[in-house]
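COMPLEX REQUEST
Ligand: M7G
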Amino acid sequence: ARHPLNSRWVLWYLKNDRTKNWEDCLHKVTTFDSIEGFWSAINHIIPPSELPWGSDFYVFREGILPMWEDENNVKGGRWLVYVERARRAQDLDHYWMELLMALVGEQFGEDGASISGAVVNIRQKGDKVALWTKDAEKDGTNYRIGHVCYDVLRMQDPNVMRYEVHKDASARTGSCVKPRIVLPAKYMK
Ligand code: M7G
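STATUS: Structure written out below.
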């Protein structure tokens, strides 16, 4: 039997190539709308930890491009989890899988409609796993989504997640973006 998901999802791969525009490096890999389709997509790709530096995977709702410019993302932001180099082997693939299962399994309840998709960035300076939400000003919704993420990833104090506004990240000059929300809240400066 086929077990339908609430949404159709698109898996994208970004292959780093400095000679091309960023958008031209983004490739659609596959689309799925059932649990079986999700697992065959996952089984068909290599885990994030085995990707070359500079690569990204994106799993976004069909109809939403995995870029800041999409109308669903232009006012949005992301819950961001940094994976330290020393924790990469333990955490990276595990975080990505747990986040994807929560996303396509709609573990965010009604707040799921405010989520565009999930991203993993493979970077030498530290990998990143993120969940993109559509409206950076909906603090209540984003808080609830962040809490579910924090639990799903089995994070514990002092693990920190930051919510960054895309507009701030895309306009950044240095490497630091001041987060709008931090979890656990006591780490908000
Ligand atoms: P990144 O991949 O988010 O993080 O951004 P990184 O700094 O850890 O590598 C790297 C660069 O990719 C940005 O400075 C942009 O040039 C480009 N880029 C990334 N994203 C997510 C977008 C996007 O949504 N739209 C556009 N136009 N460029 C992007």
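REMARKS: Helices lie at 35-44, 88-104, 139-152, 166-170. The pocket of M7G is lined by residues 22, 67-69, 121, 123 (CB under 6 Å).
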